[in-house]
Write a structure and sequence with these properties.
heterodimer; A: 253 residues; alpha/beta; seven-stranded parallel β-sheet; 16 strands; globular; B: 318 residues; 8 helices; 18 strands; binds flavin-adenine dinucleotide; binds adenosine monophosphate
Chain lengths: 253, 318
């Protein structure tokens, strides 16, 4: 069976992000493989470690920086990688047709597509791909087990969590807590350099972004930062804070 | 038609539905504001919805007794195309965020996710949304006769119910068979006050020390203030608190009038869930904790000493 793992290179959570000419600029920001994608990749690797006859293919669609994400995925253990290069930002609905097309071509039966993306704060890709392929989806999974072509597990829903069983094919999105992704070891990083990383042009897929970013603004709310010292006189500081919240901020009764 | 997919829980319409009504009215698209109620045995929900919209469409079917993104998407897409919808509004809940992409694909429509502002002019749908772990606000737009929008909860004011009820219509929809078998369900403990609807949130992190510390300090203060209870991921992962209380990137996004963070360091992933609170209060013994960078008020000190004193003081009214 073939498992596709969608990966992306995103700013590290602590990275400083700048707005240049009304658009987000990642110049100088530390970039990493999206942790949500890492959970999916790790899970695929575990399926293979447990004996599933799986070929794991890391895929990325987007600008050149995503090649780094694919290299990381190969170093963690993916068998090969496909990079559909595109300088244009594609919204998840447009992007999903590229991913679905790759899945058809590769005859994949399982797709991992991360969770809430650390850059566009979107979690739409997995479901959109599932719809295009006519497959079921399992979102926000935090426990998975593959038995033959049967996937069981648990995932979060609106008011708690659910256990499920589904027959493949399926699209799965992840959640922190699903697993602890492995680190790439130096020998594996070296080995990864020899693995196949195929480049394709987006033009071959006939897609266009439907949602366009018009402008971006940093979310800066100036905070008052009135911070009291409570080490020497905790009771006094507590009294002062309660008084401030009542009379100055007027947020408590 | 502007179609709103009703969100409800425990037999009552959720506040998010009334918020979507406000978003729909403010968007400026033509056509009646219509609420679509999906489920099984949903007459009471539909009656409630009828006081918020100009018309209510109901698909009441045993096949909808169990929520599934596939059946929901099929019903919504059918109704939206039959009713010549211009906008389809879906809640930014977990379920809404997982079936809205399916609806968009089925309708060959753009999807604007988690919007906090919405305008429609001609065929152009323009919206604002938070990106980069809520550090950036982006304006996005799409040009199409029909757009699907998921609406971030807690942003738009809830529309008030009218005295008169709008007309209700039953709709028959062909629904797909379920393919995912649900074999068990754990409901999160019903929170006293819903996090996404609360004006005051008291939230606790690892700094409260233990589940008992959480109960005494965080729940203790929340009870006195009539507040909802939130938690950091660390506290949830440790099993001290249910997942439903988690605030942050992988938990809930909240926007209360005041957010009181007790023993929370303020990691970016936590901040992305609460940095839109009107007022932020932090209590942490580490003066360099990042939470103080985003706090309006705070105390550098030991939560074990500070918070019991605060609880004592807020108990005394006036
Ligand atoms: C992909 C991803 C997603 C994530 N999603 C989320 C999310 O949704 N929500 C979330 O919260 N986190 C999330 N995290 C985790 C996040 O990075 C932090 O690890 C977490 O928020 C820290 O929780 P905390 O503040 O309770 O604990 P800590 O960071 O350990 O902070 C505890 C704080 O308590 C203070 N303290 C300790 N004792 C006392 C005392 N006696 N008196 C006063 N202060 C005291 C300390 O000074 C410290 O600042 C995510 C991480 C990743 C990688
Ligand atoms: N899926 C997407 N749809 C629309 N805009 C996006 C998407 N992903 C990223 N963007 C935005 O497009 C701009 C450039 O993104 P990128 O191509 O990732 O450098 C940034 O402002 C992103 O936030």
């Amino acid at each position: 069976m073939k498992i596709l793992v969608y990966v992306r290179q995103v700013p590290d959570a602590e990275a400083t992000i700048a707005i240049v000419n009304g658009a987000v600029s990642l110049d100088g920001a530390k970039l990493v493989l999206d942790p949500m994608d890492e959970y999916g990749l790790e899970e695929a690797l575990r399926f293979r470690d447990a004996g599933a006859p799986a070929e794991i293919i890391a895929i990325a669609v987007g600008p050149s920086r995503n090649e780094e994400a694919l290299r990381s995925a190969l170093a963690m253990g993916a068998d090969r990688a496909i990079h559909v290069e595109s300088e244009a930002a594609l919204d998840p609905i447009a992007l999903s047709s590229v991913v679905a097309e790759l899945a058809r071509r590769e005859e994949a039966t399982l797709i991992f597509s991360g969770g809430r993306q650390a850059d566009w704060d979107s979690d739409a890709l997995g479901a959109a791909v599932a719809e295009r392929l006519g497959w079921p989806q399992l979102t926000w999974t935090n426990q998975l087990k593959l038995t033959g072509e049967q996937l069981t597990g648990r995932h979060d829903v609106d008011d708690g969590n659910e256990s499920f069983t589904v027959a493949l094919p399926a699209v799965v999105t992840t959640q922190q807590g699903l697993n602890n992704p492995r680190y790439a070891t130096l020998p594996n990083i070296m080995k990864a350099k020899k693995k196949e990383l195929r480049k394709e042009a987006l033009a071959a897929f006939a897609v266009q972004a439907v949602v366009k970013t018009v402008s971006a603004e940093m979310q800066v709310r100036t905070r008052l930062r009135k911070i009291l010292q409570g080490k020497d006189d905790p009771a006094g500081a507590a009294a002062q804070l309660v008084e401030i919240l009542r009379t100055e901020a007027k947020v408590i009764a | 038609m502007i179609l709103i997919v009703a969100e409800y829980a425990n037999g009552k319409l959720s506040k998010s539905t009334a918020e979507m009504v406000t978003a729909a009215r403010g968007a400026g698209a033509e056509g009646p504001v219509t609420i679509l109620v999906l489920g099984s045995g949903v007459a009471a929900i539909a009656a409630e919805a009828a006081r918020l919209a100009e018309q209510v469409l109901v698909v009441d079917s045993a096949k909808l007794a169990q929520y599934s993104p596939e059946t929901w998407a099929a019903a919504i897409a059918f109704v939206a195309s039959e009713g010549e919808g211009k906008l389809v509004l879906i809640g930014g809940s977990r379920s809404g965020r997982e079936y809205s992409p399916r609806v968009a694909v089925k309708l060959n429509a753009p999807l604007l996710e988690d919007v906090i502002q919405l305008k429609r002019e001609g065929d152009v749908t323009r919206a604002q949304r938070y990106t980069y772990l809520a550090r950036v606000t982006e304006t996005v737009e799409a040009s199409a006769p029909l757009a699907v929008v998921s609406v971030k909860p807690g942003i738009f004011a809830a529309a008030q119910p009218a005295a008169a009820a709008a007309e209700q219509f039953d709709v028959d929809v062909e629904l797909p068979e379920l393919r995912v078998q649900v074999t068990g369900k754990t409901k999160s403990q019903a929170a006293r006050i819903s996090l996404t609807e609360a004006d005051i949130i008291v939230s606790g992190g690892r700094g409260v020390g233990s589940p008992e510390g959480f109960a005494a300090l965080v729940e203790g203060l929340a009870d006195k203030l009539g507040a909802a209870v939130g938690a950091s991921r660390v506290v949830v992962d440790a099993g001290w608190r249910p997942y439903a209380e988690q605030v942050g990137q992988t938990g809930k996004t909240v926007q209360p009038k005041v957010y009181i963070a007790i023993g929370i360091s303020g990691a970016v992933q936590h901040l992305s869930g609460m940095n839109k609170a009107k007022t932020i209060v932090a209590i942490n013994r580490d003066a360099d904790a990042p939470i103080f960078q985003v706090a309006d008020y705070g105390i550098v000190g030991d939560v074990q000493q500070i918070v019991p004193e605060m609880i004592r003081l807020v108990s005394k009214t006036g």
